[in-house]
Write a structure and sequence with these properties.
12 helices; Sulfite Reductase Hemoprotein, domain 1; alpha/beta; eight-stranded parallel barrel; five-stranded mixed beta sheet; 2 domains; TIM Barrel; about 375 residues; single chain
């Protein structure tokens, strides 16, 4: 199968390049605590050995940033850093990584009176100084509140416009060494957003992913549906498969990503069957270093088993592993769980129902699920 790639420009990330002239790169992210240097190095190297072109690490504090220096000395992997909510950490981590990833929706958390345009200028300056690429990573559950307010109930426009305006800002600073990601947990939305962006800015490399794709095999199916419809049309230069799996299984994300790319290029397409909008939909984030209790992965698996009886009901349940993205990325679910160190916060839509222990959350979730089914019946 011959695929004509979008004419995206070349962007160097450490020892590799992404863009139309280069093979589609496959990435993943560590799920260990960044300050646990030995565990993080082991996972970075395991992902690198599995064929990861880039490995991302989350940094949420000065201590995380200092740990990154030790991690860098013990791996040859191309490293990307996720700046989370404190963009000022960029100057501490940039000397040790090949790419800085920031989320436009998180820029407003720190130094709230400073315009976002100034914050982007700072990030571009740090990246130039330390020979780093940048990823502008826009996520459905953490869009800038001002952008969401501007477009009301439109779910796609705030994500799309956020990505476009950050591209324009970086380019106005003379910085073009960046890629963009526009992610959602719904494969159909991922396809539409990225198609619309590629039509507007066909020269900018795109990082593809279905955020909170969830547990295998459903998470793989959702990802495959989105990737087939985008990569098959020449859209996409690097990918991440986000699966909810235990730490030792993280390299599976690389194997799955490469298999999907190979299948698409060989014409082995499976997405003639779309997700059933009339059945239960469980979304869950990939385990990463933001997860404050590794019991989150087991909980996601328990939720899947416990809710099997409701499989023929059009209800969405979201299971999120951290306080960073959990609150926002459960808002659109009928029932949402976001996990803290000791308790799981339960929501019905945007309404908080309280925090429950890991031992009791399933019983309460069942009660809420049964009520929801009864109301809709």
């Amino acid at each position: 199968m011959s695929i004509r790639r979008n004419p995206t420009r070349s962007v160097r990330i450490g020892s590799i390049h992404v863009g139309a002239e280069h093979p589609i790169a496959v990435q993943s992210m560590t799920a260990t605590q960044t300050q646990n240097i030995d565990a993080t190095v082991a996972q970075v190297n395991a992902l690198h050995a599995a064929g990861a072109d880039v490995v991302r690490i989350a940094v949420d504090s000065d201590k995380d940033a200092h740990a990154l220096a030790d991690i860098r000395r013990q791996t040859k992997a191309n490293l990307s850093v996720d700046l989370q909510e404190n963009y000022r950490l960029a100057e501490l981590v940039a000397p040790h990584v090949d790419k800085l990833r920031y989320n436009p929706g998180h820029l407003y958390h720190h130094e709230k009176t400073r315009p976002w345009q100034d914050k982007v200028a700072y990030l571009a300056g740090v990246a130039k100084e330390h020979d780093c690429a940048i990823r502008v990573g826009v996520n459905c559950g953490s869009v800038d509140p001002a952008m969401k307010a501007k477009y009301g109930g439109d779910e796609i426009a705030p994500i799309l416009q956020s990505g476009l305006e950050h591209c324009e800002r970086l380019e106005s600073l003379g910085f073009t060494r960046f890629v963009v990601s526009l992610k959602d947990s719904d494969p159909a939305t991922v396809v539409e957003i990225n198609q619309r962006f590629a039509q507007r800015r066909p020269e900018i490399p795109l990082h593809l992913g279905v955020t909170e794709a969830g547990l295998p095999p459903e998470g793989i199916i959702k990802t495959r549906i989105a990737f087939e419809q985008l990569i098959g049309r020449g859209i996409g230069d690097t990918i991440r498969v986000s699966l909810t799996v235990p730490n030792p299984r993280k390299p599976e994300e690389i194997a799955v990503g490469r298999e999907i790319i190979e299948d698409i290029q060989a014409g082995r397409l499976r997405s003639v069957v779309a997700l059933d909008p009339n059945s239960l939909n469980i979304i869950s984030c990939p385990s990463c270093s933001r997860v404050e209790n590794e019991a989150f992965v087991e909980l996601a698996q328990d939720v899947k088993r416990m809710t099997e009886y409701a499989k023929n009901h059009a209800i969405t349940i979201a299971v999120m592993g951290c306080r960073v993205n959990g609150p926002g990325e459960t808002d659109d679910a009928d029932l949402g769980l976001w996990c803290g160190p000791n308790r799981v916060n339960l929501k019905r839509g945007q309404e908080s129902l309280g925090a429950f222990t890991y031992d009791t959350i399933l019983d309460r979730l069942r009660i809420e699920l049964d009520q929801l089914i009864q109301q809709r019946s």
